[in-house]
Design goal:
This protein is α+β, with helices and mostly antiparallel strands. It is 28% helix and 24% strand. α2 packs across α3, α5 crosses α6 and α6 packs across α7.
Length: 304
């Protein structure tokens, strides 16, 4: 049985190339009940768990803060998400929890069966458990992404892959890991965004590198963030990387070429060589932990 219930030939051909919405039935599975989510939190390596909080202003991305979960149990973490303002990110749950590994295989088998010629790798199925009214600031991803809503309601705004929403220079900084995936946002851009209300059983996917931001409704939210690469997406990422090297090393003003051509193949080789020779040293923004959770004070963010 297909995970996605509304595939069409047109959607299959457009998958990974256009912004699309789908329906699915994952929200009905027992693994996403309270008990199932608590079990996932207990199974996931605590040192890899992302714990975050944020401010209310969608422009103030600097208020995105990292925390630590300490020795809280899965049930206590779940209660913290129920009562506080936090975002729990279990990246690559498919690498650590067998049930999520099976689900990841099922999802990608379904995609491959309906999207002609689709080849995927670097698969990352992440589980997101987040508080009422929490948000993720304006940002973009290097990989392709599909966001599956399991519980609660969230709004997803997806912006064009073009200036002023994102410049070539901004893309290069992110791919070169000189900066975080979050960057400056102008609320006036919302007028040009695609707005998607995700309810349980809905999924949205967007073009590679499309900026987007997410706002939860007034209830606990549970979602799956499924990241992956394709040969075409990997080519684009390496073209952007090569452009960044050319801009920094030679003062060039390169552009992003689509598809496969002698130019993109040359840039792909340049990017791979630059990485092998360590010609560019990334300087990513590393968030220090500024708060901790405490089982005796659920919902509160205490100083580290």
């Amino acid at each position: 049985m297909s995970v996605i219930t509304d595939w069409t030939p047109e959607k299959g051909r457009a998958f990974t190339h256009e912004n699309l919405t789908f329906t699915h039935g994952l929200h009905e599975r027992p693994m996403f009940s309270d008990a199932g989510l608590i079990e996932a939190l207990d199974r996931y390596p605590r040192e890899r768990l992302g714990v975050f909080t944020m401010g209310q202003d969608p422009v103030a991305w600097e208020t995105w803060r990292k925390g630590v979960a300490g020795d809280l149990t899965g049930e206590q973490l779940f209660q913290a998400a129920m009562t506080g303002r936090i975002w729990l990110n279990l990246r690559e749950a498919n690498a650590y929890i067998p049930a999520y590994a099976e689900l990841c295989d099922e999802i990608f088998a379904d995609k491959a069966a309906h999207a002609p010629g689709l080849k995927t790798f670097k698969r990352d199925l992440g589980l997101l458990i987040s508080s009422a009214d929490a948000q993720v600031f304006y940002h973009l991803d290097v990989a392709l992404v599909s966001l599956w809503q399991i519980r609660g309601v969230k709004q997803v705004l997806v912006y064009p892959v073009a200036e002023p929403f994102v410049s070539d220079e901004a893309l290069e900084k992110i791919v070169l890991r000189e900066t975080a995936e979050q960057f400056a946002f102008d609320p006036a851009w919302d007028a040009k965004a695609e707005a998607h209300e995700l309810t349980p059983g809905r999924m949205v996917t967007w073009r590679q590198n499309a900026p987007h931001r997410i706002t939860n409704g007034p209830m606990l939210n549970v979602s799956l963030s499924v990241e992956f690469m394709t040969p075409e997406a990997l080519m684009r990422a390496n073209v952007i990387y090569a452009n960044g090297v050319l801009r920094r090393r030679l003062g060039a003003k390169p552009h992003i070429q689509p598809g496969v051509s002698p130019i993109t193949l040359g840039k792909f080789a340049l990017a791979r060589g630059a990485k092998a020779l360590n010609l560019h040293k990334p300087d990513p923004r590393v968030l220090p932990a500024t708060f901790r959770l405490d089982a005796t004070r659920p919902g509160e963010l205490l100083p580290v």
